[in-house]
């Protein structure tokens, strides 16, 4: 309620400021003031009005109103991550009320995959820790009203060197993540062969733009 009142207050201030500028311009024109200066003031007023309208449109589209809020496995668990841990965390996010406060993401960090890709070059969830697969885990997390994030790297291997990176497999991996229902991607920068990041990151970025996945 406070935020709504605050925005309303700012809105009235803005409208009052615009009205003052319009009155000033009108008086200048009536008193035969320099027409080019009056035109400049009017143009600046129009720009300010456009910027305010654009700002309000951006707030109304529902995007980026808060930072991505949730939980990530790395800081506490490092490579000791499993589907049981993710499910327990999802349950805890709901039972503690964090979901109601806007915490939506459960993000699996490094070490979730096998050391090697399968025969078709796809990333594979580690069978000993994610026996049900990532798709089934995503379905479980979604059933709790949460979103699932995952980890990859713009290099040959991830930073732990315990699973493949996405370098050279960007499009393939983006399709895999999409098929699993992944909502968020943490994309690291290890083992990158000293290739310019602008070359490595842009490929996956375009794939993320084409679906509602947040990529960081």
Distance between the termini: 32 Å
General form: globular
Cα-based radius of gyration, to the nearest Å: 25 Å
Strand order in space, largest sheet? 1-2-3-4-5
Main beta sheet: strand number and arrangement?
Answer: 5 strands, parallel
Strand content: 5-15%
Mean pLDDT: 80
Stretches with pLDDT under 50, minimum 5 residues:
1-14
Count of individual helical segments: 7
How many strands appear in the DSSP assignment? Answer: 5
Structural class: alpha/beta
Helix content class = 40-55%
Order of helices and strands: HHEHHEHEHEHE
Architecture overview:
The chain is globular and about 65 Å long. 49% of the residues lie in helices and 9% in strands. The protein has a 5-stranded parallel β-sheet with strand order 1-2-3-4-5. The N terminus is likely disordered. It has 216 residues and is an alpha/beta fold. Helix 4 packs parallel to helix 5 and helix 6 packs parallel to helix 7. Keywords: Disulfide bond, Glycosidase, Hydrolase.
Task: Please give a handful of descriptors for the protein shown.
alpha/beta, 5 strands, 9% strand, disordered N terminus, Aldolase_TIM, hydrolase
What's this entry about, in short?
By secondary structure, this protein is an alpha/beta fold.
What's the topology here?
Blueprint: H1 2-30, H2 35-60, E1 70-72, H3 74-77, H4 83-95, E2 105-107, H5 134-143, E3 147-153, H6 170-180, E4 184-188, H7 197-209, E5 214-215
Parallel strand pairs: 1-2, 2-3, 3-4, 4-5
Helix pairs in contact: 1-2, 4-5, 6-7
């Amino acid at each position: 309620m406070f935020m709504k009142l605050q925005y309303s207050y700012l809105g009235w201030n803005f409208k009052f400021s615009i009205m003052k500028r319009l009155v000033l311009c009108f008086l200048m024109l009536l008193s035969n003031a320099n027409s080019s200066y009056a035109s400049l003031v009017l143009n600046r007023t129009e720009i300010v009005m456009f910027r305010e309208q654009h700002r309000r449109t951006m707030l109304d589209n529902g995007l980026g109103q808060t930072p991505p809020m949730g939980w990530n496995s790395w800081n506490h668990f490092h490579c000791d991550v499993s589907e049981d841990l993710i499910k327990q965390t999802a349950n805890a996010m709901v039972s503690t009320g964090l979901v109601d406060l806007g915490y939506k993401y459960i993000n699996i960090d490094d070490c979730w995959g096998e050391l090697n890709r399968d025969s078709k070059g796809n990333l594979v969830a580690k069978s000993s820790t994610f026996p049900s697969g990532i798709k089934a885990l995503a379905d479980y997390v979604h059933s709790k009203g949460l979103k699932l994030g995952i980890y990859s790297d713009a290099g040959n291997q991830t930073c732990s060197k315990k699973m493949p990176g996405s370098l050279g497999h960007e499009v393939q991996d983006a399709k895999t993540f999409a098929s699993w229902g992944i909502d968020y991607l943490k994309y690291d920068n290890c083992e990158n062969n000293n290739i310019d990041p602008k070359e490595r990151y842009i490929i996956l970025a375009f794939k993320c733009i084409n679906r509602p996945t947040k990529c960081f």
